[in-house]
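Quick entry, no commentary yet.
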Amino acid sequence: MDKEVAVLQRKLETELKNFKDSQKEFNKLVQTQQQLDGQFFENKSILEELQMLKPTNTVYKLYGPVLVKQDLEESKQNVGKRIEYITKELKRCAENINQLEQKQDKYRANLQKLQQQYQSQMALAKQ
């Protein structure tokens, strides 16, 4: 009887560790998603500003401490590519978050089942 309780306790501890690890990973992904959202909206506003410019306007890009003249169309393309990349990363991040949520649901169900088994074993041991 004591061996069964010890085995259940180890399973419970392992499942709890897995659940906590998945929570940490989930929190990291949510943080990454928030950063990507910020970058997305920043680049979106930059593109809107660039769209308002006339072809005769001059655009400069900051490279370290130096401002370098850049072609307007090239700037629009660069920002567009950046937005495209960020959009793909946001989609990938959302998919990973969904997968982790499903994984966490399984861990919760397993934890609940193991806790019930552990409690019933403890009750039997006391009798």
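second:
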Amino acid sequence: MTTSKDVVSSDTAMEATISDQDLKASEPFPLRQLPLELRRKIYRHNLMATRNPSPKAIYLKKLPDGSRDPPSPLLLVNSQVRTEVLDLVQTWPIFLRVTHQGIQFGSVAETCFIAQQCSRDYGSIPHLVVEIWPPHPDRPTDAIDIWRHLRNLRAELRAVPLLQRISFLFADNEMASWTHNGNAIALLDSGGYDAEPLAWCNDVTYIMDLFARISAASARFYLPHGLKPGETTEHVRTRLRSVNAMMMGRIPIVEETYTEEDEERAVFQDWVDDCRERKLRMKGAEIARDKLDVMTRQGRMQLTQGQWEDFIAVWSPHFESLLFQEFKGKLHYVYEDHPLDSA
């Protein structure tokens, strides 16, 4: 027969067992007891998993402006782990991330700078990989900022007489891509305000042309994975080969390639960029207006002031680009609880 004393004794024993299990679980993992090859795999997995912010953070949040990522936290574990991590990344390329939010060396890049004992001067980097993120498909005006950042980067790279090794990676992800239905997207078309993009020109070729005049001992472009065989794709690959050759000095620079040192050409390019920007702003505003119509059922279900502000912060609609009758106004979409708080 089981007594209450037996039950209490049993419960006490169980609590002691659970406590022992919790204590064992909280003990540090014996990382240094693993073989070096396993430790290196763990370091590699950790570094690659934290190399970039998530696509949601890139596209749907405002990242800190001008801040520099710290080196990998692995360097703070102990002297042995620090030495092993730095030894692992001594030959890794250094990634420079370019998004609509700006240009930044990430945490792994900062770790590589320490391991390779080189400065952030582009000429001292053994292998620089420029990772170019595409614009969000619902926010084509991202292309304007990406283009501006790339032009600034091109000016800095051209100041280096000869880069050691440089690669350009068109980075696709689950939220955005450089391609659509197998062809490269063409937001950065060089036509006039209402012109259709040229069949053989697209964002990938424009960006490649932008860097044709930098000098590098070794240069390479990695095309988007979504490109499918076809006339447009073949033009991209042909252009890639010629731009690579120009960058490494194997063939003369094509005179039509844009250069800001040519004053007349620069004035024309500024006009083209202005047309491109107005066109993209209008397209982005149209998309934002259509999204608001869907969210509010054509204004029948109005947003709160906070929801409106969140929408504006993420999608940057540039409604001023639309004709007056094309945007119904803030009052059509937002519930205003104060008579003076109106648009």
